[in-house]
Amino acid sequence: MSDNKAKDLIDSIKNKGKSLEAEMSFFDHLDVLRKHLLRGLLVVTILTCFAFYFSDFIWGDIIMMPKNPGFWTYRMMCKLYEMFPSVIGKEFCITKIDAKIINTEMSGQFTLQMNSCITAGIILGIPYLLFEIWLFIKPALLEAERKSASGFVFFASVLFFLGVLFGYYIICPLSINFLINFTVDPSIQNTFTIDSYLSTVLTLTLGTGIIFQLPVIIFILSKLGIMTPKFMRKSRRYAAILILVVAAVVTPTADPYTMMIVAMPLFLLYELSIMISANIEKKKLKAEKELYKS
């Protein structure tokens, strides 16, 4: 009986040691993650201070430009109308945007400047933040996985900035023009708060940047075996409907040309994701065949 008790005591000590080791490993990982996050926060803070120095340019030449009829997008739309007047309606050429934007809080403009500069710091710091994420997950990957995902930071950053540019130059001005000029009744004058305007610009711009991460997400899901090219090809018609619905919501206009301008890159992203998933599946099958041969 005493031997059994001694054995139980030893087993209990061993199990306790294992649990303490696992607990220490968990907290070690948290400590490593904390260091990566702190470095990322430091870089974002530096970039935010840099954005404060150029705050006038950020506000006047970036944030407020989508409501200006002289914005690049509106000028290009008018040129397209001049080139194809019989195909594109006159309303496609935007030459006037009537909107009064007001501030209703005493500290509103200062807060807006703070928020816009912090957002600019985060956007500019995305490549470094992705790099820190990569450094954190890299030790947990196998050598083959590290090689296949070596371009993660570059491709994710490029897709994000392409999405931001597409959102800023295409989706944002088209949506703002529609929302500013839309009226339920002519007697109701559209007057917007600067908070509402800024949140619309940031949501549409950053949201598009996140949507453009679809190929990266598909790459990860395909690596995990969750997503397959066969499933994506079968779901192509449903994806097309979903993309058109998203395009219609993001650009709530009756113009089909505008909707297709927004939807086309999303279709291309979906097809690119299928190609990525098919390439991963091909490599997996090739590795399995080589394993069977050996």
From TrEMBL:
Q: Which UniProt keywords apply?
A: Cell membrane, Membrane, Protein transport, Translocation, Transmembrane, Transmembrane helix, Transport
Q: Which InterPro entries match?
A: TatC
- Subunit-level organization: Forms a complex with TatA.
HAMAP family documented for this protein: TatC (MF_00902)
Query: What is this protein's function per UniProt?
Result: Part of the twin-arginine translocation (Tat) system that transports large folded proteins containing a characteristic twin-arginine motif in their signal peptide across membranes.
What is the similarity comment for this entry?
Belongs to the TatC family.
What's the name of the protein?
Answer: Sec-independent protein translocase protein TatC
